[in-house]
């Protein structure tokens, strides 16, 4: 497969491949909470304490990832949103991810532009993990949402033309 047809999403990449990374800074509001980026929001789910969670959600990038990694959630596979626990493997968690990515796409023009710019590319995330028991966002969960949003944006774009 020619590499020009592939876009590997990673924060260290230039252009759209870096912008689409969950570590990229994309301020947005989700469920009334100010988020610094997707990584901050996702890592905040490890925090049972609402004040700590809100602080985490406001972060982005490597800082959010490193602080989140200090909270152990793997034994119980339990996450929290605004003090309410839910299981990492539940439909509720998948709906949470869908809603969070929808909010990001609606509010970040830069994120939307990067998705449109990726049209025609096969999206990959070679640095991501695949085991949902050890990561809060698998490669499949991440790429599925990017592809879904990109498809929706392209459909809207074609309808407008």
Please characterize this protein's 3D structure.
With 161 residues, this protein is α+β, with helices and mostly antiparallel strands. The protein has seven helices and six strands, in the order βαββαααββααβα. It has helices at residues 16-19, 38-44, 50-57, 61-69, 91-107, 109-117, 139-160, and strands at residues 6-8, 28-30, 33-35, 78-81, 84-87, 122-124. Strands 1-6 form a two-stranded parallel sheet. A two-stranded antiparallel sheet has the order 2-3. Strand 2 (28-30) and strand 3 (33-35) form a beta hairpin. Helix 2 packs antiparallel against helix 3 (50-57), helix 2 (38-44) runs parallel beside helix 4 (61-69) and helix 5 (91-107) crosses helix 7. It starts with 5 loop residues before the first strand and ends with a helix. The model has no long low-confidence stretch (mean pLDDT 94).
The beta-strand count equals 6
Radius of gyration: 15 Å
Give the low-pLDDT segments: none
Strand portion: 5-15%
Main sheet properties:
2 strands, parallel
The tally of helices reads 7
Briefly say what this structure is:
By secondary structure, this protein is an alpha+beta fold.
Defining key terms:
single chain, 161 residues, alpha+beta, two-stranded antiparallel sheet, 7 helices, 6 strands, 47% helix, globular
How would you summarize the topology of this molecule?
Blueprint: E1 6-8, H1 16-19, E2 28-30, E3 33-35, H2 38-44, H3 50-57, H4 61-69, E4 78-81, E5 84-87, H5 91-107, H6 109-117, E6 122-124, H7 139-160
Parallel strand pairs: 1-6
Antiparallel strand pairs: 2-3, 4-5
């Amino acid at each position: 497969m020619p590499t020009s047809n592939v876009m590997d999403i990673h924060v260290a990449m230039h252009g759209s491949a870096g912008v689409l990374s969950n570590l990229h800074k994309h301020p947005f509001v989700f469920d009334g909470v100010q988020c610094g980026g997707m990584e901050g929001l996702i890592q905040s789910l490890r925090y049972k304490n609402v004040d700590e969670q809100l602080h985490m959600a406001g972060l982005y990038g490597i800082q959010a990832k490193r602080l989140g990694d200090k909270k152990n959630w793997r034994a119980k596979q339990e996450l929290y949103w605004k003090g309410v626990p839910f299981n990492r493997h539940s439909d509720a968690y998948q709906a949470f991810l869908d809603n969070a990515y929808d909010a990001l796409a609606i509010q970040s023009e830069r994120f939307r532009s990067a998705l449109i710019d990726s049209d025609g590319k096969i999206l990959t995330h070679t640095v991501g993990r695949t085991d949902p028991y050890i990561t809060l966002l698998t490669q499949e969960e991440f790429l599925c949402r990017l592809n879904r949003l990109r498809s929706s944006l392209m459909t809207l774009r074609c309808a407008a033309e």
